[in-house]
Amino acid sequence: MASECESVNAANHPDGTEPLVHIAVDYCPDACHHAPDAGEIHVTYDHRGGARWRSRRRFLPGSAVAATIRAPAGDTAGLNYNLYLSSLEGSRDQDEIDFEFLGCDKRAVQTNYYVAGDGGREQIHALPFDSSDGFHHYAISWGADAIEWRVDGELIRREERRDGEPWPEKPMFLYASVWDASHIAEGRWTGTYHGRDAPYVCSYRDVRVPIALSVEEDVEECQGADAAGEAPDDAADADTTDAAAVEEEDAGASED
After folding, report:
1. Structural element, H or E, at residue 108
2. Does residue 255 have an active-site annotation?
3. Among candidates 14, 53, 2, which has minimal Cα distance to 228?
4. For a 10 Å CB count at each end of the chain, is N or C smaller?
5. Active-site position among 89, 100, 159, 230
6. pTM as predicted
């Protein structure tokens, strides 16, 4: 018999989505464990820094993506852990749609979207649970006319396109990462990292993507540290010797 969590996840799967099997890891692959047979990805933040994984395909407008996520346990002040779409992380003109968890408050999540590198559309949403207490379902639906963010199937935000206003239209990868954002706004955004409860593990389960609405493209050189997926300096120095992503050769190649 399926568990209550599994039943809720199945009910919340966006139409037209399939399990994400193949990923790439942009930096610090040792801190990202991918178990494709189990449908799980675990990102650890510790002395190595964190890691960022992404889909190997970009997805087109008209798509939806989703994942069941358990935030890291303990005092996560300073950390940002997330699930987001981006046309290309590190590009100054990227389109992006975010779920971001701010480590200073595990009972809230931030949503935002960018068009051609321009953001400033942040909203903070109170959650009726501690995001580290268990797995919860997060979904983004993105079309030509509207963007919707859902948590456990409940709509928490909807943005509709207005005539003459910019809109995210570029094909986008699905990304997720854990990184230290203490330096942003002098710690007022996520708090200040101290690491007393390290290692911190953010777990992603049952990641769903719209394969039928995707394009496969070569990885471009700009996958640098920026915005929601920014890499800690030590992780970038230790593990990113060039700008190319560390690709899995097959579904079980890395067991990252």
Report:
1. strand 108-114
2. no
3. 53
4. N
5. 100
6. 0.85
